[in-house]
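Cross-check.
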Amino acid sequence: MRCIAEPAVAPPSWEAEPVARSRVLRGFRPTDVPTISAIVAEALHEHYDPSLYGSLGADWPDGFLVAVDARDTPIGFLLGVSQVPGESRVLMFAVEEGGRGAGVGRRLMDAFLERSRQRGFHRVTLEVRVSNVGAIRFYTRYRYSVIDLLRGYYSDGENGYHMAREL
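Predicted model, tokenized:
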């Protein structure tokens, strides 16, 4: 068994995933807030003020990616920010339960990493609950490594891992 702090090999390309063609990525829209809030509550076990999404996405709109179904309803999203020179940060990232394992998260992460490269960032960071084994496995496939333990980081007191990868 490999330690979760060790980076893994690069993930296979997005095209290898069985994803319906109707699922596409687009930018965030204010009308997405109720659906994204529900995804956050279910997947991340957090509840944020609805105004937070628009304000956080305002500084780097291209860093706020939304995956939608054929009806243009959000099924996942990745909210990225840049708070440190030369770095992007995955601030929030979640896919609704029914879309997990279908390549939605992979497509969001691939697009975010490419946009980070295009902006000239050299590093990407994120935080993840220590109990979220599936997400940790996903991130290590993308060569993220644990760089710190964040004690009591989440609103319910759970610890988190601070992870990073170079671009």
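The radius of gyration is 15 Å. Helices lie at 33-44, 51-57, 104-118, 133-141. Passed to J.P. for a second look.
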